[in-house]
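Continuing the series of single-chain predictions for the mutant panel. This is the parent chain; the variants come on the following pages.
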Amino acid sequence: MAAGSMLGMPLLLLDLDNTLLPRDAAFRAWAEDFLSENGLPAGDLDWLVMLDGSGYVPRSTVLGAAKRRYGFDRSVDSMLAHYRTGINSHIRCPDSHVAALREAREAGWTLGIVSNGGTMPQLEKIRRTGLAALVDGWVISEEARCLKPDPLIFEIAARRCGFRPAGDWRAQTWMVGDYGPADIAGAAATGLRSAWLHHGRPWAERAYRPTVSSPNLPEAVRVILAADEHPTAGRGFAPTTAGRPQRSRGRLAVPASRLAPTPARVAPNVPNLPNAPAASLTAATLTAATLTAATLSTAPPNAAPTKAVPLAPIEPAPAAAAS
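Parent structure:
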């Protein structure tokens, strides 16, 4: 994997699809190609996008429905192979996301990817888009044999980013993602702070909620950096490899104008922080002043206690995922 983590760096974990990579846009582009290549009605695009369910519907269900609708004389497996090649050819990591990752790196953060999905398709996305060179480690659910929201997958991510949790490592870690039941519930179950990318959607879960809500990844990263502008030493993280040079941890100044609220950005359906008033909170309305230590360190009601949790032994990842 990419270069390992250093002593004293907080950890930023990120989901892959529709967080780091605009996966839905890639699916839409593939669907347009699919319809065009097969001489099918362009108006069926919305039908395919509806079936796709942002990738949470099994591919066999989506492609099987397409096979029956269009009377294809080919196997679902052959369609699946064609689909995987096609959608990954459309995957790109936006320049603004690359800039946000570099900004976090320069501010002294360790970066990791936590993704549910098949090992090879997800690994291909990480490599094809250049993310492998921008993060310290990653974990994919198939090869790790556990899925978000299981806390184990986040602990594996910390290990692969070069750390051994030797204390309250969770206090140093944020999780960013777009899918509540996996990303945000997983962060809550593990005791991590979280940033939910709402993409214009209302928060619908009652049992848990994100620490902050943001419209996109760059803004979520800016809010997290503003909250922890001074990355402090370890607080429980011990490096797995000694003797590595430490990255610069220079202070990152975030101008207030970049985080100041604007009426157009405030939406009534954005989730509130625990114990916060009913007013909506977005990344645009959160400043370093509002993100106090008391607010941000408050764990969700159902979070695990913040004592040291030793990592459970795990089997080595396959060679492809560990390369």
